[in-house]
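## Example pair
The file below holds two records. Each record gives the amino-acid sequence first, followed by its structure token line.
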Amino acid sequence: MPVTKNREYRSMMPMGTAASEKRIDSDYYVEGYATTFDDPYVLYEIEGQKFYEVIASGALDGADMSDVIMQFDHAGRVFARTSNNTLLLSPDSHGLLVCADLSRTAAAKEMHQEIDSGLVTKMSWAFTIAESKYNKDTRTRTITKIKKVYDVSAVSYPANPDTEISARSFCDGLIAKEKREALARKLIIMQIKNQMKGIK
């Protein structure tokens, strides 16, 4: 799986072939949610501490979703894309709904069969972040604005190495900052104690 610098990768909800109401008229139809809104999940765990992330409702407002593709493991053949209307991305009150018509090529039909048979059950999506904020008390990063969505991909394993890389980089930086702040507080307390001893 290729590592593309500056892109964030996240596991998404299961994708399936059964749908009560198809958004695209196709015998090779799949749908699922790329993400849910306002629903925190564990981004990374390091040194026994869990860091969380949440996609805020409205984070996709104004995001560039002009030519998003659907692939397998974020690489190789393209099975569907928004620019030719075989891929539909639709933010709603729950999250980012993904609907795809996998009928245009033999490879896409094979992917539909693998999803339908339960061999491929998870997906991941790739995007860049425009704005986010961090709550130190809850160790939660809230993504408030997404700049661009690049792809939604069916994946063989939901744990994406790219997610691990980007999450570890973000969380390592937070831990280093918290350690610096704790050390600075400790030094201030020591200075105050030494001053109090001098007054006595």
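Second record, same layout:
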Amino acid sequence: MPAPDLLTAELTLTGRIRTASNATFVGTIGDTTVVYKPIAGEKPLWDFPDGFLAHREVAAYLVSEVLGWNVVPRTWLRDGPLGEGMVQLWQDADPDQNAVDLVAAGDVPETGWKHVLKGQDETGRMVALVHEDTPELRRMAVFDVVVNNADRKGDHILAMPDRHRHGVDHGLTFHRDHKLRTVLWGWLGETLTDQECDGVDRVIEGLHGELGRNLAKLLSAEEIASLGARCTRLRLTGRFPAPSGDMPAVPWPLF
């Protein structure tokens, strides 16, 4: 959990992220830079009518911690200038790295990258959506399956200078129905590694203990039951799932 001063010290707003669909601010708590998303600034969504997006963001962090892969930066609930909301430690991503990219259809790298789909850009040029083939990004893809992430856009992946990859913007997670929409389909059908299976097992076990108790404060009983069912199904198959259902398999826009 965050240090007590991050929970209680004054949160001062320093800017607003205008590209976000919900009210999202940058602020400071002492010398620490944070992202602040007040519940009061959330816009209702037809397919996520229950609960608060901020609660889902915190729930995603709790699951990330139990997985043990540091996918989600430290995230917590607290009061702020616009009321209670989600607060997350700011991350300084490397602008020269791209974990996900659009390239000309004929220029898909042969190694180190996974091809997801091909289409036309706004100029009619044929392009391909690709993402890097790394353990860090694979773990994020497993995390997205577990939390049922409905909005894994390319820009929701922060490429850190040390090659770590953080995932952010997890308000559209934990729906009781299948909602997986992601740009990370490159490992479709591949077998999970032992490390990935161990992480899913930790979530299954945690749901019977502290993780389950903490999630009960943030999600509905049905959503928690669906989380457990997804984890069990993932362990039984032992493979990255394929898209299913009538919903698009990728979010829009992709970035």
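Notes on the second record: The first strand starts at residue 11 and ends at 16. The two ends are 31 Å apart (CA to CA).
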